[in-house]
């Protein structure tokens, strides 16, 4: 039977089947709309930029200088900016208030990580602390990490960190041009010391270089939206010959070696690794009764701590050296403070920190000027939520934009400039980076105290020992990587010992360092 349907001025003739299909489709759309209105409580999604056909606005997360570009949207859309496309939603949080309200205050909803196809499944990192979903296993990892990274415990590593800082200074006196690999080596040594107690050796160097190669792949893998397979999960079934699958295979092999090699080294050389109360030797020699599956958990926890800890410290110190080459006045002021407070008969030590407010402000300003994780590490909402009159559906990827905090407009202190004084302003001091550069709520960085101490002692030692300035015959390059950990691209500068006396001090301190 045919049906005649008036449609504006004309008429349409439909069969039973066609009419039935239209009615069913309409019911489906109405129900869908009703369901959506019910769960969204009639609230809209947070606003965001208009998208391109098919891909929507989702690709904005992977654009060049994304943290800065996304922070600019704050003026237009406010604290919350929604990017959408290919069936995915990414919510960028552009203020400390919004980040704390959601990630901290509503930690039960926002403490999961996005399901990662590339890094988690294909590269095999899904059981590491950084990738684990919020839950029992993740809790066990954090508990293990806390045994050596708690604020009181990290004091046991002060002497080791001071020794490694002096060793860095000694290597820089001998070979200042190689400051990139030398800084990397120092950051890696501290973590290897804390986790495994591995002293300087060929094995130690091998693990740090392995870490460097892994990070080239892993840094991209952790960022939101860098790989299409994270947005279109069915692509994980693509054949092994496609480029991202080959990259994942390389990453998988590297990650396996990176995680297992130092662990097995310690298992077989436990007596050689006992200089400091480090995590793996302590746990293996006196296993805690309340931790089941200890070896497996240790392996995954230490792998994640090593990967997350070394790269961020390295990035921060490289940014500091660049900042000093660009800001000679700041450098002079910090050096004058060190001379006044400590004198020139010894190098700075961790216990000097309280008495060096300007150096402390330089540390904070380095973290602000070039935050090493400018988009933090993404989260995922584990339930529907409602905030500031907007609907945030379950499984939205949440990106806390640390850059937006670091570069919030400020009439008194230009955010683009390196001005440590902003942290010393008695009237309106800038917010301490410890409240935002290390993440938020339950997933806040477990290495905060260790990392912050490392950055301080490395920076203070470099200030005491060297004058850093731009290269004589070339431009000072100021470019940065675009991965989840942001650090300066290769640049050259001059790193010159401040006096013969300081060379002697450095050599003596480095000679007494066991790490
Ligand atoms: C300057 C130094 C460091 C910075 C700026 C930094 C920053 C961060 C940030 C932004 C996060 C994401 C937290 C979140 O999701 O809210 C994080 C997580 C993490 N960091 Fe750090 N970090 C530093 C040093 C370290 C060190 C030294 C270690 C290890 C010894 C470490 C281990 C980790 C781990 C394992 C996670 C994942 C935590 C989880 O998912 O539960 N970090 N870090």
TrEMBL record:
<dbReference type="InterPro" id="IPR036396">
    <property type="entry name" value="Cyt_P450_sf"/>
</dbReference>
<dbReference type="GO" id="GO:0005506">
    <property type="term" value="F:iron ion binding"/>
</dbReference>
<comment type="similarity">
    <text>Belongs to the cytochrome P450 family.</text>
</comment>
<feature type="transmembrane region" description="Helical">
    <location>
        <begin position="6"/>
        <end position="31"/>
    </location>
</feature>
<dbReference type="InterPro" id="IPR002401">
    <property type="entry name" value="Cyt_P450_E_grp-I"/>
</dbReference>
<feature type="binding site" description="axial binding residue">
    <location>
        <position position="445"/>
    </location>
    <ligand>
        <name>heme</name>
    </ligand>
</feature>
<keyword id="KW-0472">Membrane</keyword>
<keyword id="KW-0349">Heme</keyword>
<keyword id="KW-1133">Transmembrane helix</keyword>
<keyword id="KW-0812">Transmembrane</keyword>
<keyword id="KW-0503">Monooxygenase</keyword>
<comment type="pathway">
    <text>Secondary metabolite biosynthesis.</text>
</comment>
<dbReference type="InterPro" id="IPR001128">
    <property type="entry name" value="Cyt_P450"/>
</dbReference>
<protein>
    <submittedName>
        <fullName>Cytochrome P450</fullName>
    </submittedName>
</protein>
<dbReference type="GO" id="GO:0020037">
    <property type="term" value="F:heme binding"/>
</dbReference>
<dbReference type="Pfam" id="PF00067">
    <property type="entry name" value="p450"/>
</dbReference>
<dbReference type="GO" id="GO:0016705">
    <property type="term" value="F:oxidoreductase activity, acting on paired donors, with incorporation or reduction of molecular oxygen"/>
</dbReference>
<dbReference type="InterPro" id="IPR017972">
    <property type="entry name" value="Cyt_P450_CS"/>
</dbReference>
<keyword id="KW-0408">Iron</keyword>
<dbReference type="GO" id="GO:0016020">
    <property type="term" value="C:membrane"/>
</dbReference>
<keyword id="KW-0560">Oxidoreductase</keyword>
<dbReference type="InterPro" id="IPR050364">
    <property type="entry name" value="Cytochrome_P450_fung"/>
</dbReference>
<dbReference type="GO" id="GO:0004497">
    <property type="term" value="F:monooxygenase activity"/>
</dbReference>
<keyword id="KW-0479">Metal-binding</keyword>
């Amino acid at each position: 039977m045919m049906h005649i349907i008036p449609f504006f001025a004309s008429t349409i003739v439909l069969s039973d089947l066609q009419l039935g299909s239209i009615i069913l489709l309409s019911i489906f759309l109405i129900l869908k709309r009703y369901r959506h209105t019910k769960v969204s409580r009639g609230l809209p999604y947070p606003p965001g930029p208009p998208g391109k056909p098919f891909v929507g606005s989702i690709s904005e997360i992977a654009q060049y200088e994304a943290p800065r570009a996304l922070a600019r949207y704050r003026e237009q859309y406010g604290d919350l900016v929604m990017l959408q496309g290919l069936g995915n939603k990414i919510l960028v949080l552009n203020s400390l208030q919004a980040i704390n309200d959601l990630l901290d205050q509503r930690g039960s909803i926002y403490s999961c990580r996005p399901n990662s196809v590339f890094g988690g499944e294909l590269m095999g990192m899904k059981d590491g602390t950084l990738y684990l979903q919020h839950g029992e296993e993740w809790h066990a990892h954090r508990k293990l990490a806390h045994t050596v990274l708690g604020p009181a415990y990290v004091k046991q590593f002060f002497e080791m960190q001071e020794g490694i800082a002096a060793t860095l200074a000694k290597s820089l006196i001998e070979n200042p041009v190689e400051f990139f690999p030398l800084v990397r080596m120092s950051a890696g040594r501290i973590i290897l010391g804390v986790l495994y107690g591995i002293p300087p050796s060929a094995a130690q160097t091998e693990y740090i270089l392995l870490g460097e190669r892994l990070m080239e792949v892993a840094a991209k893998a952790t960022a939101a939206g860098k790989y299409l397979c994270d947005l279109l999960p069915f692509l994980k079934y693509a054949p092994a010959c496609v480029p991202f699958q080959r990259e994942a295979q390389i990453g998988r092999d590297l990650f396996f070696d990176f995680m297992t090699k130092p662990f097995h080294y310690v298992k077989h050389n436990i007596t050689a690794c006992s200089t400091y109360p480090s995590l793996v030797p302590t746990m293996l020699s006196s296993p805690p009764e309340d931790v089941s599956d200890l070896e497996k958990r240790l392996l995954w926890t230490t792998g994640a701590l090593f990967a997350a800890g070394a790269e961020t410290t390295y990035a921060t110190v490289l940014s500091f050296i660049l900042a000093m080459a660009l800001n000679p006045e700041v450098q002079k002021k910090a050096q004058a403070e060190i001379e006044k407070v400590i004198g020139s008969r010894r190098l700075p030590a961790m216990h000097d920190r309280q008495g060096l407010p300007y150096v402390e402000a330089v540390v904070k300003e380095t973290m602000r000027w070039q935050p090493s994780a400018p988009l933090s590490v993404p989260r995922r909402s584990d339930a529907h939520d409602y905030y500031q009159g907007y609907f945030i559906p379950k499984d939205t990827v949440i990106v806390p934009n640390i850059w937006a905090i670091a570069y919030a407009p400020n009439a008194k202190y230009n955010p683009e400039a390196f001005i440590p004084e902003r942290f010393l302003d008695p009237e309106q001091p800038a917010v301490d980076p410890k409240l935002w550069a290390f993440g938020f709520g339950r997933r806040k960085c477990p290495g905060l105290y260790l990392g912050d101490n490392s950055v301080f002692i490395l920076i203070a030692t470099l200030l005491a020992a060297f004058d850093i300035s731009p290269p004589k015959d070339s431009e000072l390059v100021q470019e940065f990587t675009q991965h989840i950990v942001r650090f300066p691209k290769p640049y050259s500068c001059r790193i010159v010992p401040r006096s013969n006396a300081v060379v002697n001090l450095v050599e003596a301190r480095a000679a007494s360092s066991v790490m």
